[in-house]
Known about the structure:
The protein is of the alpha/beta class. 38% of the residues lie in helices and 16% in strands. It has a seven-stranded parallel β-sheet, sandwiched between helices.
Amino acid sequence: MHSVVYDHQAFTLQRYGGVSRYVCELSSRVHRAPGFSARVVAPIHFNSYLPDCDVPQTSMYVRKIWKTGPLYRALSNVLSPGFIRANPPSLIHQTYFAPLRKPVNVPVVVTVFDMIHELFPAGFSTRDRSGSNKRNSVERADHVLCISESTANDLMRLYSVSRAKISVTHLGYSEIFNATMPTDETAPLGRPYLLYVGQRAGYKNFDKALSAYAANTAALEAMHEQTLN
């Protein structure tokens, strides 16, 4: 039986978010795969997804109070190694890029989603160490997962990582967080609308999406006509 441990980082960084959701989805699938078991070690966390994640956990949910995130991360950093050493896994999947101490001598993998900190540094604070932590994590990892060929190419170009060290694993669909969708073609609000899910920070190109749609006269006229009808 091959066992995989997912660390606490995604769950002490996000209450909601794509990275922690990815880890929940991935760990639950790995745990159901023949010959594998998965476990999440997040001793203290405030993530809303993890309590409903169908995978064994060493975790305790606490309510996040303003500015307590660094404290929870520090406590989890201290507590996690002991829990992992007590039941050593076959593999550790590092869920983000903080320079954590490896508690047992087993291979480590890390997922790289994109290279936005490197490609768009102006969109982030000069105090943001995500880029340098990412480089360190990639260098220390035994293998790197990238969610697209584009990210893999950026990683090779910007960090000179060998292609042999990278596997591209595309994102899938959710089994855990299924939204109930209308069964007919009628918009839930009774009129045409646009739904944007996510932050509106600069690197998401939200402003460019609006500008592109506004420039599409045909689309605007069609929406207006449907609204009138």
